[in-house]
Automatic annotation (TrEMBL):
GO molecular function, one term: DNA binding
Modified sites of kind 4-aspartylphosphate: 55
This protein's record includes keyword Phosphoprotein: yes
Record flagged with keyword Phosphoprotein: yes
PROSITE patterns in the cross-refs: HTH_LUXR_1, HTH_LUXR_2, RESPONSE_REGULATORY
Classification via InterPro entries: CheY-like_superfamily, EvgA-like, NreC/VraR/RcsB-like_REC, Sig_transdc_resp-reg_C-effctor, Sig_transdc_resp-reg_receiver, Tscrpt_reg_LuxR_C, WH-like_DNA-bd_sf
UniProt-listed GO biological process terms: phosphorelay signal transduction system; regulation of DNA-templated transcription
Name of the protein in question: DNA-binding NarL/FixJ family response regulator
Domain HTH luxR-type: 143-208
Record keywords, A-Z: DNA-binding, Phosphoprotein
Superkingdom of the source species: Bacteria
Residues spanning the signal sequence: none
Domain Response regulatory: 3-120
Length: 222
């Protein structure tokens, strides 16, 4: 029996995906997550899952960072990005960062079924425009390579830095001391080759859907 994971924060679209999967794989077991923290826990609890359908705009994720992080932690798990962002360049970037497919949210049920059948057979699937778009830039690949070295907790801290949270706020959210957060930040800076948190966030922002929209965080004493 196949196990498919669905990660999307919109209940109606999760329902649509459930219907599409049921038509292709009537006996499939479906598990769902509606935010990034729940997704990480779900993937950990389902190490033998056959496929993850991942929305790019999940709460707690920025662009392709969650895709890159999950590919590093769980290289055996095929990931298909499902997104309302349908620009050819966005689709190509998802494939370049390790997705086995890209399904636009505007796809009809027949296309959705065809895409799922293709990737479950071991093939890649994406609209033709994705394959003719320019490849992801070298600096983006470099940022992805650095992010792969982060532990799950360091990755969470980096995401919170990107959201503008201070050490004290991050500690509260994670249930750890401010000193522990500072230790994580120090490790993040070392692994990313960054001299401060602003630079770290700017490196990570290369994986954002719209890098220019990322606001650097306030500086603190490390």
């Amino acid at each position: 029996m196949s196990t498919l994971l669905i990660a999307d924060d919109h209940p109606l679209f999760r329902e649509a995906l459930r219907g599409a999967v049921a038509r292709v794989l009537p006996d499939a077991q479906l598990r769902e997550a509606d935010n990034v923290e729940a997704l990480y826990a779900l993937v950990e609890s389902e190490p033998d899952a056959d496929l993850l359908l991942l929305d790019l705009n999940m709460p707690g994720a920025q662009g392709f960072s969650a895709l890159v992080h999950l590919r590093a932690l769980h290289p055996q798990l095929p990931i298909v990005v499902v997104s309302a962002r349908e620009e050819p360049a966005v689709m190509r970037r998802a494939l370049d960062h390790g997705a086995v497919g890209f399904i636009p949210k505007s796809a009809d049920a027949a296309t959705l079924g065809q895409a799922l059948a293709s990737v479950l057979d071991g093939d890649r699937w994406a609209p033709p425009a994705a394959l003719s778009a320019p490849a992801a830039a070298d600096d983006e690949h470099d940022a992805a390579r650095r992010l792969r070295d982060l532990t799950p907790q360091q990755f969470r801290v980096l995401q919170m830095l990107g959201a503008g949270l201070l050490n004290k706020q991050i500690g509260y959210e994670l249930g750890v001391s401010e000193a522990t957060v500072k230790a994580h930040v120090t490790a993040i800076l070392r692994k990313l080759g960054a001299s401060n948190r602003t630079q770290a966030v700017l490196i990570a922002s290369r994986l954002a859907l719209d890098p220019g929209a990322i606001v650097p965080p306030p500086e603190e004493a490390e």
